[in-house]
Every structure is written in C-alpha cells, then in structure tokens.
Amino acid sequence: MKTSSELRLAPGTVITGKWNRGRYRVERLLGEGANGKVYLVEHSRRLYAMKVGGDAVDLQSEINVLRSLASRRRRTEPFLLAVDDYVHRDGKEYPFYIMRYVRGSVLHEYLQREGADWFPLVGYNLLGKLAELHEAGFVFGDLKRENVLVGSYGRVELVDYGGATAIGKSVRQFTELYDRGYWNAGSRTAEGTYDLFSFAVLCLHLFEGRRLLQLTKTLLPQNRSPADLIRLTTGHPALKPFAGWLARALGGEFASAREGAAAWQRIMYGGGVKPARRRRSTAGWAAGLFACTMIALAAAIVWMISEGMLPTGLS
Ligand SMILES: Nc1ncnc2c1ncn2[C@@H]1O[C@H](COP(=O)(O)OP(=O)(O)OP(=O)(O)O)[C@@H](O)[C@H]1O
C-alpha cells in the first residue's frame, strides 16, 4: 500500500473497488488532513464522501470504529457504506472507504452564518453524538471545530474518526488546545470525561477564541490549569447560561456524556436561552414583501370592480 499523499484524483476520474467492483466518479476534493484525502464522489446517481487513506493501519482503525457504530445504529442510514482498495494504473494500491456525504459546514462557519442562537441546539446534538460513540465503547479523542460538520436545522455529524480510541486505552490522536493533558486537567486515558473536556474547550474556542489562544501563548506549561479556562466561561453572552455546565465538564464532573447532554438540555429549556431561528435571506424578505403587495393590489382591484369603480369589460 502507498500513501494517499502521492495520489491526486482529478474530477471525472472513475475509481473501481478491487474487491466489490463498486464504481465511484470523483466530483471534487472535499478536504485533506494527516490521515488522508476526502473526495466527493458519485455512485448510482447519489453523492458520497470517499476517504482515501494515508496509512492503511490508521484507516483500518477508523473503519473499525465506524463498523462498530453501524452495528448499533440499525434504524438510521449507516455512515460507513463500503470499504475497498483502489488499484491505480501504475499498479499501486490505495485503501479507501465510502461514507455518507454530509452536506454541511464546519461548526464555526455554520454559527457565523446562521447565528449564535443555534449554539445550544448544535451543542446538544453534538453531546448526543459523543454519548452514542461512548456507549459503543470509544471516545472520539480529536474533537475540534473542523471535525464537526453541521447540516440543516443544526444536525451534527462527526467526521474524522482517526483519533477514536477504545475506552481505557491511551488517546491515539489529539490536538493540544483541546487536550486535557495539555491543560494539566487529567490523563490522556480514553474515557468519556476526556471528550467532554474537549467539548468545553471547543465552546470556548467558538466564542472566546482570541482569549483562549492568548492563554496558550502567555502561560508556562506547568502553570496551565482548568481554572484559567473556567474564567473564560462567563464573558460571552452565548456561553453565560452554560458557564456552570462548562465548569463541570472542565472539572471532569459528569459521569457520562449522556448525563452531560441531559444537563445541557435542562439549561436550554430552563429559560434564558434564545431559541434558534433560521435567518431569512434578503431575497426571502424581498419575495415575501412582493407577494404581500400583489395580494393587497389584487384585493383592491376586486373591491373597486365590485363597487363599479372600474370597467369590467368593453361591452
Ligand atoms: N462525510 C463527509 N462529508 C463531507 N465532508 C467531509 C466528510 N468527511 C470529511 N469531510 C471533509 O474533509 C475534511 C478532511 O477529512 P478528515 O478530517 O477525515 O481527514 P484527516 O486526514 O483525518 O484530517 P486530520 O488531519 O484533521 O486528521 C474534513 O474537515 C471535512 O471538511
């Protein structure tokens, strides 16, 4: 097997799986990272995402996690759809897998576009995803803004299971800023509280990014502590209602992500949190205004005709 970094698939390229003979037409590159490249592909007139692995072992461990999740989510459309190898015309082989294409934006872009009102619901949905993963026996490990895609109405999907680790083992892959070891807040053992800590840092990164990054520059490694993070939880109006929740997550106080999600939901419905509303575009407003004007005009014409103020014909 070769690494995918050498492989560039141009739009229009057709990939045929060596084992299952599935044919996938490359539309475009969706993204790339340390573990491989992700392409948008078309198969049987539907769109999917194809990850071509950088390293067969890393890709296999992602596949194992996705398979284990698929066996639990029998009632929903599976995320992992096919696993195969691609043989390039020069004879090199590249492992790949096909997953559901998530039409969405990375978390911070979604909130910038749709507004911070969506944060409580998106946060709740993300906690649900983490709880589901933990209940399947894994922690996500590398939770960060880029690995959370948000689709319509705040639906959340985690992508990049390269850091997912069986509970009890040492977290395989993480990003320093989100790592509780970096903040002297606990070990790198894969347990639910590890992801909840990263989730809390993710919330801070969304709304207090500048102050958070400032801390990483000014504090000496031995002086970093969760208390510094807790101080950031009360500054921004979007975070304020959740300040107590965030402090508990940073302190490792939730027994599970499910418990954390339930506590988050109580805050959402306990008042003080604005419900999410879809932003209407300018075009939407203009169309609405135009329709109202037309209805008013039509009503006026009908009234004038009925009052004999307008001729009804040429007879
Ligand atoms: N199922 C999907 N649907 C839509 N876009 C996706 C999907 N999976 C991945 N992407 C896009 O591709 C990007 C790279 O994917 P991914 O994070 O899995 O690669 P990686 O090599 O593991 O990255 P990293 O270096 O962060 O570990 C993602 O940030 C996302 O924008």
From TrEMBL:
<dbReference type="InterPro" id="IPR011009">
    <property type="entry name" value="Kinase-like_dom_sf"/>
</dbReference>
<keyword id="KW-0547">Nucleotide-binding</keyword>
<feature type="transmembrane region" description="Helical">
    <location>
        <begin position="283"/>
        <end position="305"/>
    </location>
</feature>
<protein>
    <submittedName>
        <fullName>Serine/threonine protein kinase</fullName>
        <ecNumber>2.7.11.1</ecNumber>
    </submittedName>
</protein>
<dbReference type="Pfam" id="PF00069">
    <property type="entry name" value="Pkinase"/>
</dbReference>
<keyword id="KW-0808">Transferase</keyword>
<keyword id="KW-0067">ATP-binding</keyword>
<feature type="binding site">
    <location>
        <position position="51"/>
    </location>
    <ligand>
        <name>ATP</name>
    </ligand>
</feature>
<keyword id="KW-1133">Transmembrane helix</keyword>
<feature type="domain" description="Protein kinase">
    <location>
        <begin position="24"/>
        <end position="315"/>
    </location>
</feature>
<keyword id="KW-0418">Kinase</keyword>
<keyword id="KW-0812">Transmembrane</keyword>
<keyword id="KW-0472">Membrane</keyword>
<dbReference type="InterPro" id="IPR000719">
    <property type="entry name" value="Prot_kinase_dom"/>
</dbReference>
<dbReference type="InterPro" id="IPR017441">
    <property type="entry name" value="Protein_kinase_ATP_BS"/>
</dbReference>
<keyword id="KW-0723">Serine/threonine-protein kinase</keyword>
<dbReference type="GO" id="GO:0004674">
    <property type="term" value="F:protein serine/threonine kinase activity"/>
</dbReference>
